[in-house]
Amino acid sequence: MSVLCHQRDRLGLMGVSTHTFRRTALTQMSSLEVSALQLDGAIAALISKFRSFSAVK
Question: To which H or E segment does residue 12 belong?
């Protein structure tokens, strides 16, 4: 269980997942006028982490 999921359950929050957390972070970065290059880097990092996590499972 991820740290985020553990805390979500501990606090009784509904609708919080690692997916929504990542999506919200990217949306906020876009709203804050983060450059396209920075946004691309963040997306690439998330994809890389997802692939390495998926390989472990």
Answer: none
Q: Which residue has the tokens 């970065």?
A: 29
Domain span including residue 9:
3-56
**pTM, to two decimals:** 0.42
pLDDT tens-digit profile of 9-26?
888 888 888 788 778 877
Number of folded domains that form the chain: 1
Contact 14, 1 (CB under 8 A): no
In the 8-state DSSP scheme, what is residue 15?
S
Q: Report how far apart, in Å, the C-alpha atoms of 6 and of each of 10, 12, 15, 20, 53 are.
A: 6, 10, 13, 15, 18
Q: Which two tokens stand for residue 45?
A: 């990092």
